[in-house]
Each structure stands twice: as structure tokens, then as C-alpha cells.
Amino acid sequence: MNNTFNIQRFGLLLKRQWLEFGKIYLITLAVALGVIVTFYSFSLWGYIAETKPFYERALNFREPLFLIFGFLFITVIASNYFAHLGQKPKAIIDLMIPASTFEKFLTGIFFTAILSTVSFIFIFYVTDLAFLAKLRSVYHSSSTRTSYTDAQGAVAIVVDNLAYFFSKNGPHVYKGLYIIPFFVTSIFLLGSIYFNKFHYIKTTISAMVFSGIWTAIIFKSGKLLFDNRTLINRMGNNGPAKDNVELCLALLLVLLTLIFWSITYVRLKEKQV
Amino acid sequence: MIKINNLNFGYRKNQLLFKNMSMQLSTGHIYGLLGKNGAGKSTLLKNIAGLVYADSGSMDVMGYDPSKRQPALLTEICFIPEEFYLPSIKIDAFVKANAAFYPNFDHPYFTALLAEFDIPVTQKLIDMSYGQKKKVIIAFGLATQAKLVIMDEPTNGLDIPSKAQFRKIMASALTEDRCIIISTHQVRDLDNLIDTVIMLDENSVALKASVEEITNRLCFKRVKELDDKVIYAEPSLAGYNAVMQNFHQEDSKLDLELLFNAVLAEKNKLKPIFN
Amino acid sequence: MEFRDNKAIYLQIAEYVCEHILLGKWNTDEKVPSVREMAVELEVNPNTVMRTYELLQNKNIINNKRGIGFFVADDAIANVKSYRKTQFMDDELPVVFRNVYLLNIGFDELESRYNTFVKETFNP
């Protein structure tokens, strides 16, 4: 018997954890869906019912909603995952399940980093698609289009504002951001096993304190190192220096995520009841 | 099956619960683990199951180190804690989710055990009383066919008929290759079930002996008067219930409660008898 | 079966088996319950039952046919009687004698009591 990883046992464990947490998970997901739908309805109902004139500005709530609420959703899921290990009776059952610590840990990663992110993106995307499709069908007429005429007065270009909205935002997408969900959930997953009670609040406060201290250190040391010195930047804002910073930032995020995950693994291994 | 060597354990650094504890347990026995409150019965069981880690010393369970929590060992351990948790799903869903981890899980046996305990399979775990849940978890644990069965106060919360059912089930669960350890306060629930007594006191094993060894060396009987042969006695309706050394090869019935109190009160007199 | 307080469990089980043999519930060459069945029925440790069966084997009351189980021995009844007699003489009679002595009961009275008892119980 392989005592570290066995794909069949891992499958069984995923299934077991799903039976255990699936219900709560689905309820949380349903609540999230409800909140998103409510937000969209409140913001867009007037336009769909054609009681208000449509402006593109009306769609501006989408990014903040996605970011803030998505953050909340994945952190809540992550900070609950190992929370029950703080209760002796539940912890005993979990630790005695014949699967290796590594498998139990990987299951945690799967549910918190992957499944929660993917499912949130999915429900957000579906809601967004539904509302915007409806909106489009209402405003397919000229009100959402801006036409430009040439000198002869003929129509030269027609811009579909909604289509414009759907188009890709810019030429440069910072891929490092894709690591953010993993990074964020790794912090809250660690919090869920590190604390015995009030996991979310305690994790948030610790994260704030740590990042505060870190910022202070960076700021102070930066001041110490660079004050009264002249900045030499020959490349301008788009040179290789910027790419390096982006790469460093991405690597830093990956590194921190891995560190948080390994601490979580060690905590799980050392967990006693 | 279990080899404990110089085990030191404490929940706090300077306050040891076990000091240099050594013990060996073998298959084919039902061990009764006794001790005062706080003597460390549950803690010892958790050490064996790998739920807590020793400060020093070695623990060997079927050739594995339980603190590594390897699946190969975990499939061979059935651990019934005193306080336990079951999710709020139906019994068959619970079995479906958990039984597959145990390669030897015996489904017909599980059904038979539930029937013996009078528990309908379709019942939801959330609608059950503490005692019923306990019976489900005991039935599940035994059906895993684990070689090592550890039970912490299993009869707590069981009603009178269930206790009898429990004794029957445990009597049939003991096989040549199984080792059963039961900790209990309610010695009367289990005294005919236990074949070896382990008593914890003062950071260590105060007594570990089979019922046969105990009754070979000690005699439990009612006496009218106390004399110097009596090691320990408690007044009763007709004189005293006394423990004395068994000089005449008398076959008396082990009185666990009396033995327990005797070990606590007269440790020094009993020690040489068992060495 | 209710266990009494003062006698070792394995001996009480032995009595139980002997009782069954004497009463003709288990006859010669019949199989007696296996160790496990007996342990379950009486709610005791199988090792205790094993000890009983070893004792009864030594007294030639039951014998072990390898791989099949335990059977009532040929002259089990006679052996049970002699075993029970020793037990009675050693364990129970002294208690009776003690009371006979303490309460000043005469042997004549005992004898007449004994005769009525036998008449009432065994020859109805």
C-alpha cells in the first residue's frame, strides 16, 4: 500500500469530503448566486424595463462586484475548510480516516483553491451573460450605438457600445494576477487550521497586521536606502525593468502561496487532539 | 501487536502524564483500561491511535509508528472515542462515503450488527439519540474488520438492553488476530468481558495482569473479621469484602471494583505479589 | 444466566455446562456450543469459556474433536457427578456444616427434612 499518495484513495477522499461539506458548499454557492443576481437586478432592472435611458456607466458595478464578492466567497470557503479540526470529536473522525495526510491536504487545496474559484467564476459568468444578453436584446436599437458620419453625410462607422464593452480591455494582461486566488485561499486555509475559533476574523486581522508590518518595513528601508539619491531610469515606463518587476511580483506570490500551503501541510501533520 | 517503550507524554512541558511507561499488548485479548479521572486513560488510547504524539519513547503498533498516520495502519484501527461526531446524513450514505477506505469492510456484518442493536438502516443520523449514534459508530468500527479495536467508555450512553447487546457483540468480535482495548469507569458493565486488566495510576501502569493471573495470586472473598492476611477490605452487609493473597489456590471471582480500590490504596503491598 | 458473586466465572460456566449434561439437554456425542457461541450467549470473554472447556476436557466431561468442535464425552454424566461431588464437598458442605453447627440443628431433623425434600422434588 502506498502510504503517501494513491489516486484511488484520493478519489474516495474527494467523494467523502463532498458528502460531508457538499451540502454547505452548495448552500453557500446558492447564497452567492442570490447576491449576484440581486445586485444585477437592482442595478439593471430600470434599463431592462426601459424606464431609464441606458448609459454604459450603468455596467460599472460589475468589476468591483466580481472582485470584492469573489474575494469574500473564496476566503469564506477556505477559512471553513479545516475549521472543524478545532472541534475534538470532528477532528478525531477526520484524522482517523485511512488516507494519508498528503491526500487530506490535497483535498483541501482542491476544494478551496480550485473548486471555489472555478465555481464562483462560473456562476458570475452565467449571471452576467444572462443579464447582458437581455440588456442587448432590449437595446439593440440606435440608443446603444454611436454612428460616425463622413463628410458626405453617409454612415462610415457604427460602434456598438455593448460590443465594445465586451471587447478585450487592453493589449497587456498581467498574468501574475491569476495566482491571486491561490494566494488568497492559501492564507485563509492556513488560518482555518491554525486557529481553533473565529477563523475568518482572526485570519483577516493577522493578515492585516502582517501586511501592515511588511509595508512599514519596506517603506522604512526604502526611505533609508533611496532618500536623497537620484533615480536613474533609462527605459521609461515600458522597458524591461517593468517586466522584471511583474515577474518578481508573480514569483513572490507563487512563493508565498507555496509557503502558506507547506505550513498548512505541516500543521495538519502535527495536529493533535 | 502494540509495543510501548519508555513513553513520556505530557500536555504541558513540565507536567508529565506518563513517565517512562512501557507495556506490550498482544492479539486475542480484551484489555480493560482502568484508572481514576485524569489518570490518562483516553490519552493513552490517543497515543496508541496516533492522535497525540509522545514527547519521547517509542510506540509501535503492528510494526508502524502511529504518529505517522499512514493509511496502511489506519485501516487496521477502529477507534471509538467517548465524544464523537457523525454528519447529518443517512446511515447508508455514511457507509457509502466511508466504508470504501477499509478494504475488508464487511457489509452483511454491519447490517447484522445494526439489526442486533435495533437500528433501522434508513434512519437519518441527525434524528438519532446519542446512544443510537454510538451504536452506529460501534457497528461501523467493528465492520471495518480492523485488527486493533480501541474504545473509550463505549457503554456510556447505552441503555440497559443495549449494554447486554454490546457485551454479546464484543464477545463475538474477539478473534485470535484481534486486539481490543476498552477503557471504562463502569467496571460492572464489562467485568466478564475483560480478560486482562491494565490500571493506570501515578503516571504509569500500576497493574497489568490477566484475570487468571490476578485470581491465582489474589483471593476475593467475604470475611467476618479482618486479620493481617487481608491486603485491603471494604465493609459490606455481612462483614467485609476483602482482597488477600491466594495461599490456598482458591478460585474466587475477580471483583474489579475492589481490585481497583486496592491498587489505589495498597500499591506497595500489591507490587511484590505481581512481580 | 446470572452469575453469582463469589465464584470464579469460568467455574460457574463449567457448572452451567454440567447442569445441561445432567438434565439431559446435551447428550453423549452431541456437540456442545462453540467457544464463541457460548461467550456470546453468556456475554463473557471467549478466553474464559476456553478456560472452562479446557477444565471440562481435563475432567473428561467433554472432548475436542479437532477441527469440528467440542462434544459431550462418553461417560460424561458419571464424570460430571464425581466432579460436582468434589466441588460440593469442598465448597458448599462446609458452609452448610457451619450453619448446622451454629444453629444447633440435629442430624435427625436434617434427615427427615432431606427425605421430604427428595420426595417432593424428585418423585411427584
UniProtKB/TrEMBL annotation, chain A:
Top-rank taxon, per record: Bacteria
Give the UniProt keywords, A-Z.
Membrane, Transmembrane, Transmembrane helix
Q: Write out the transmembrane intervals.
A: 24-45, 65-84, 105-127, 177-195, 207-226, 247-268
Name of the featured protein: Uncharacterized protein
UniProtKB/TrEMBL annotation, chain B:
Per UniProt, the keywords (alphabetical) are: ATP-binding, Nucleotide-binding, Transport
Which molecular-function annotations from GO does this UniProt entry contain?
Answer: ATP binding; ATP hydrolysis activity
Q: Does the keyword Aminoacyl-tRNA synthetase apply?
A: no
Q: Does the keyword RNA-binding apply?
A: no
Gene3D superfamilies in alphabetical order: P-loop containing nucleotide triphosphate hydrolases
- Where does the record place the ABC transporter domain? 2-227
Which intervals of the chain form a coiled coil?
Answer: none
Q: What PANTHER family does the entry give? A: ABC TRANSPORTER ATP-BINDING PROTEIN ALBC-RELATED (PTHR42939:SF1)
Instruction: Kindly provide the name given to this protein in its UniProt entry.
Output: ATP-binding cassette domain-containing protein
List the source organism: Pedobacter planticolens
TrEMBL record, chain C:
Xref: SMART domains:
HTH_GNTR
Source organism (scientific name) = Pedobacter planticolens
Q: Where is the HTH gntR-type domain?
A: 7-75
Which InterPro entries does the UniProt entry name for this protein? Tscrpt_reg_HTH_GntR (IPR000524), WH-like_DNA-bd_sf (IPR036388), WH_DNA-bd_sf (IPR036390)
What domain of life does the UniProt record list for this protein's source?
Answer: Bacteria
Q: What is this protein called?
A: GntR family transcriptional regulator
Which Pfam family is one of those matched by this entry? GntR
Q: Looking at the keywords, is Thylakoid present?
A: no
